[in-house]
């Protein structure tokens, strides 16, 4: 078992509870950690034996472009997509941050972190 992480991804997107937020947009950050078996990739040095980072980034980028009201909803969508695209992934932890959220005061970012293990039947 091992971990693959994509940290510090940044996107400009149109999320937010208020309609105005969905019109003017904001900067968001995403940190992603997946647990999967990395033994085959380590032994073979073959890209197809691991989770391709470029494809993983593309999945996150696509989900970030689809509007959402809540960061929690974004996080759940990212996790769902990763499990769909990479069924061999054991667990996913994702943090989604909104920079300078409209709270009426100084706040660098609001962040939610979600984690889920893949259910195996």
Automatic annotation (TrEMBL):
GO terms for molecular function: dihydroneopterin aldolase activity. InterPro entries: Dihydroneopterin_aldolase, FolB_dom, GTP-CH-I_C/QueF. Pathway: Cofactor biosynthesis; tetrahydrofolate biosynthesis; 2-amino-4-hydroxy-6-hydroxymethyl-7,8-dihydropteridine diphosphate from 7,8-dihydroneopterin triphosphate: step 3/4. GO terms for biological process: folic acid biosynthetic process; tetrahydrofolate biosynthetic process. Keywords: Folate biosynthesis, Lyase. One of its GO terms (cellular component) is cytoplasm. The keyword Kinase does not apply. Residues 4-116 form the Dihydroneopterin aldolase/epimerase domain. The keyword Nucleus does not apply. It catalyses: 7,8-dihydroneopterin = 6-hydroxymethyl-7,8-dihydropterin + glycolaldehyde. Its EC number is 4.1.2.25. Catalyzes the conversion of 7,8-dihydroneopterin to 6-hydroxymethyl-7,8-dihydropterin. Belongs to the DHNA family. This is 7,8-dihydroneopterin aldolase.
